[in-house]
Design goal:
This protein is an alpha+beta fold. The protein has 21 helices and 14 strands. It has helices spanning about 40-50, 60-70, 80-90, 100-110, 140-160, 165-185, 190-205, 215-225, 245-250, 260-265, 275-290, 290-295, 350-360, 365-370, 375-380, 385-400, 405-415, 420-430, 450-455, 465-500, 525-545; strands at about 1-5, 15-20, 35-40, 55-60, 80, 190, 300, 300-305, 305-310, 320, 340-350, 510-515, 515-520, 555-560. The strands form four sheets. It has a five-stranded mixed sheet with strand order 3-2-1-4-5. A four-stranded antiparallel sheet has the order 12-13-11-14. Helix 6 (about 165-185) crosses helix 20 (about 465-500) and helix 15 crosses helix 16 (about 385-400).
Length: about 575
């Protein structure tokens, strides 16, 4: 059963049941057979969800679902028109076009496409639901438009060479949109007192506005002293927050450095290097996750980042503010389960190399994937036990780099696993030729820019080196895209599968990034949730890669504190 929903201001909405013949949990007569206006959309949907658990066709779960969650309603599944339109536009080689309902409808009628509206601020939204944020042309009915766009999306999916894979991607992306709203709704458990104590321990007391924390101020003095500039006029003192100031200080000391980046400084022999590196580390904590971050993002013992589903071209998620997917390891100690609850932390082991093995069908690679530490097994098999060489060779295969002696290592890897290496090299050649590539489920790489194509087609001999370099760079992008995007397919399918498996329990999905997921649950069901995590990984592997012999171990740890899972 599928039900199209269009919200209206004030909590009302209009709905229509689609005659798709899908099975439901009760008599179809329990839901309206034609368009109907309902004064309390959330209450009406709750009744239908309890009886039928339909697939809800939503213009955008990102804008509608948070309001439904606030009423206590959880949806089991949906078809998100906004995210589906983005996937289909990408598949057609048209990324970046507006994805909203009005734009999709306008494309069907060859009309101007309204731009996507800015994201909804959940903290500023004053009422349940909003008036139309992307108004349709005069005379167009939003519910009719949603029904038409949904039908058009189904037609476009059916027309691709492997529609079942694209249907799985659309279903997983739509489930991801529901999960993202739920994770923000529940929030990641966060101990403010632990975070404050950590900041005080590492940086000193909270400074006044415009001042450095005491530890950073002392390090800044140590840096200046290391350059022999103590007592010098302020204009000559070293400002560790200013890269140009650091580079000039090294130049005065007779050392030429191209930048003040950490990897550059580690190669320099000078007494200022150690305090500089320490300053950089602590300054990053202060700026990115210090007292101001805590004031802005943690409320009521919960950190609620705004997830952006498919925010990266490969399908990985992003966040809008709060740097939710870049939490430093040192802060994981602040993520602690509530009393009587546990955190179930699951982390996929060396996901992208395993994905390459499954994509390529390399049987030899599948044999070594049975090990938890894939690099150690490859090292024993191919590199005389040198794990570092095995890892560098794999990274070279997936990212295309051959510097630092990686070229000969890649040659060894190619000799042992020819199908795996050939798979990414074919993707690289496609990119160098300006072609698109796709993930396992059909997420599509963006085409190169018009300026790139102009450079490739230039007859000017002076641009030959530039064009070769641009072609290699785009080839490196497509080489990695097929692996990273397919890994994102798998991880998103795991999330959708796990969300379904823990439905009906008190377990809460609270965090997801790339290859890691956190569930917050009562202690009494933690072991059951951990088992469901493992089962979700196995189910997702079959859904995405079919009958592959490659193993995708998703190790779940039951802990009180996020830091204890590593």
């Amino acid at each position: 059963m599928q039900v199209v929903v269009v919200p209206e201001a004030g909590g009302a909405g209009r709905v229509r049941v689609l005659p798709d013949g899908a099975r439901s949990r009760g008599p179809a007569s329990a839901a309206p057979a034609a368009a109907e206006k309902v004064p309390d959309l959330a209450a009406w949907m709750a009744g239908i969800e309890a009886v039928h658990a339909p697939r809800w066709v939503l213009p955008s779960a990102d804008t509608l679902y948070p309001d439904l969650l606030a009423t206590g309603l959880r949806l089991s599944r949906c078809h998100d028109l906004f995210h589906t339109e983005g996937i289909l536009l990408g598949f057609a080689g048209l990324p970046g076009r507006p994805r909203n309902l009005a734009a999709a409808w306008a494309r069907m009628h060859e009309l101007p496409e309204p731009q996507d509206p800015p994201p909804v601020s959940r903290t500023e939204q004053p009422a349940l639901f909003e008036a139309d944020r992307e108004p349709l042309p005069a005379g167009a009915d939003p519910l009719d438009a949603a029904v038409a766009v949904h039908a058009d999306q189904q037609r476009r999916i059916a027309a691709v060479p492997q529609p079942d894979r694209l249907r799985l991607l659309v279903a997983a992306e739509s489930a991801g949109a529901l999960a993202a709203a739920e994770m923000r709704h529940h929030g990641l458990p966060w101990r403010t007192d632990v975070h404050l104590a950590l900041l005080t321990e590492m940086l000193g007391p909270r400074p006044s506005a415009g001042a450095r924390p005491t530890v950073l101020a002392a390090l800044a003095e140590d840096i200046t002293a290391a350059f022999g500039l103590s007592g010098a006029p302020e204009a000559r003192q070293v400002n560790p927050d200013n890269p140009a100031s650091v580079v000039r200080a090294f130049a005065r000391a007779g050392i030429d450095v191209p930048s003040s980046r950490a990897h550059v400084l580690r190669e320099v022999d000078h007494p200022a290097v150690e305090p500089l590196l320490r300053y950089k580390e602590l300054a990053r904590l202060w700026v990115a996750n210090g007292w101001s971050w805590l004031d802005s993002w943690v409320h009521g013992g919960r950190f609620r980042p705004e997830y952006v589903v498919g925010g990266v071209v490969s399908g990985r998620w992003a966040t809008r503010g709060g740097a939710g997917l870049q939490l430093p390891r040192v802060l994981r100690t602040a993520v602690r389960a509530d009393p009587g609850w546990k955190l179930v932390v699951a982390d996929a082991s060396q996901l992208e190399p395993r994905v390459l093995g499954a994509l390529s069908g390399d049987r030899r690679f599948a044999e070594v994937s049975a090990a938890t530490d894939l690099y150690t097994t490859i090292a024993t098999d191919t590199f005389d036990g040198n794990r570092d060489h095995a890892k560098r060779a794999m990274l070279s295969a997936m990212y295309g780099g051959t510097a630092g002696g990686a070229g000969p290592l890649l040659a060894q890897l190619r000799q042992r696993f020819p199908q795996a290496v050939d798979y990414v090299e074919q993707a690289a050649r496609a990119g160098e030729e300006g072609k698109i590539v796709r993930s396992r489920l059909g997420r599509t790489s963006p085409p190169p820019s018009e300026s790139w194509r102009a450079l490739m087609g230039s007859a000017d001999p002076g641009t030959e080196n530039r064009s070769r370099e641009a072609a290699r760079n785009w080839g490196r992008f497509t080489r990695n895209f097929v692996v990273q995007a397919s890994a994102a397919d798998w991880a998103l399918t795991v999330l959708a599968t796990l969300r379904r498996r823990i439905a009906g329990t008190d377990a809460q999905l609270v965090f997801f990034q790339h290859d890691e997921v956190l569930v917050h649950c009562p202690a009494g069901i933690a072991d059951t949730v951990a088992a469901e995590v493992t089962a979700s990984a196995e189910e997702a592997s079959g859904l995405v890669f079919g009958d592959t012999p490659v193993r995708f171990p998703l190790q779940a740890a039951v802990v009180d504190c996020y830091a204890d899972a590593k």
